[in-house]
Each structure stands twice: as structure tokens, then as C-alpha cells.
Amino acid sequence: MRLLLVEDDNHVAAALSAVLARHGFEVTHARSGEEALRALLPDSGPPFGVVLLDLGLPDQDGFQVCGKIRKRTTTPVIMVTARADVRSRIHGLHLGADDYVVKPYDTMELLARIHAVSRRTLPADPAPASEEGTESRNAPLRIGPVTLDLATRQVAVEGTTISLTRKEFDLLALLAQRPGVVFRREQIISEVWRTSWEGTGRTLEVHVASLRSKLRMPALIETVRGVGYRLVSPAS
């Protein structure tokens, strides 16, 4: 897998690049936001599988770079930074980051997150058994004022489209397909992040907080203490 490492500290980049190379990654190192954006141009080579983005860049803030990256490509972005506050995490996810890792981190943790975000959702079967089955499977889900179109991966609240990241949509879609049913944290992590790695739990909490904020419906996703989460219809 090709990986774009956006890091202005050459010593940090060299050490991390060596580790990533040992695990089979082909690393391209960008030292600034502008250099990273140039590397992502369509004619710059084969597409990257993941972008590791530091926030403290010399030419522009990493949040700005993330927003520009998301306008150009759907390549997964993992923010890697010393900014540990929850507001920064949520802001990064709002901008389109797929994950957020706080320095200092364990290398195996970072590798696990890279593999988790790089897994893509399998495309729908193009040859369904029947027309009726197709309509049923592709019919938008409606939970109160919220509408999810699984075919186009769009979400709207009272007719207004809401911009969600890939993982935010996958998480909401999972809960919305069985409103009222409690999904265990382990089950959500397995189905949305496709991993059993326990460290993803914190990422799940941040994604839930981000969804509540974007949808402006904090009560829509209920935390079931010690178990997991469930979607609560506003009408119930």
C-alpha cells in the first residue's frame, strides 16, 4: 500500500517511515501542507491508500490541509498529533478525517488503525435476485426527521443534507437499520471498523459525539452504559 506521511519533523518521519516500510508500506514523505496536496494530484502516481497527517505543519494548519484533501479525494486520512483535547478530535472528524491518533502513540496501535481505515466497504451486488428485493434493499431509511439513503450514502435532517465522513455514515447506517436495538461496542467496532482491536473504542466514542453534533440531535444515539449504543426514534 502507498502511504502519504505528512510530517515536518524529519527525524520523526525517518523513524516512522522505516517502521512502515518494514510492514510493507511504500511511504512518500511530505514536509508541508502544500507538498502533501501536490503529492495527491491525479497525475502524481498511483493513488495512496492512507494519509497520515500531522497538524503542526510549517505552512498551514493541518486542519486546513485535511479540508483541502477531502475536497480532492476520498483517501482515508488519519490525523497524528499531540492535540489530545476532544474538541480537536471532533473538529478533525467534522473536516473529514477517518481517525485521530494522539502522540506519543504505540507503533502497533498506529499500524492497527491504518489497516482499519484502509478497509473499504464492499460494493453492493449489481445483480439482485429480484426487482422487489432491490427496491426494498435500496429504500431510504427514515427515523423521525432523519433520512438515510444507503444507495447514495446521503443523510438529511428535515430535508437538509448533512455531510458525514465514511465511518460516521457507516456507524449511523448500522444503528438505523435496527432502531431500538442495542449494539454492543465490540459488534459496532467489528462491523464498522472491521477489526477486533480494543483501542478503537475511543475512536467509536469520538464518532458518536461527532454524529450527535452534526445531526443536532444528541438524544438520537443513546449510550447504554457498559454495553454499547442504540438509535432512539424521536417518535418513540
TrEMBL record:
Return the annotated DNA-binding positions.
138-233
Ranges where the Response regulatory domain occurs: 2-118
Kindly list any coiled-coil regions of this protein.
Answer: none
The UniProt entry, under Pfam families, shows: Response_reg, Trans_reg_C
Keyword line: DNA-binding, Phosphoprotein, Transcription, Transcription regulation
Q: Which CDD domains match?
A: trans_reg_C
Domain OmpR/PhoB-type as annotated: residue spans: 138-233
Task: Give the superkingdom in one word.
Answer: Bacteria
Q: Which residues carry this modification: 4-aspartylphosphate?
A: D54
Answer whether the UniProt record assigns the keyword Phosphoprotein to this protein. yes
| Record-given protein name | Sensory transduction protein RegX3
- Write down the species: Streptomyces lonegramiae
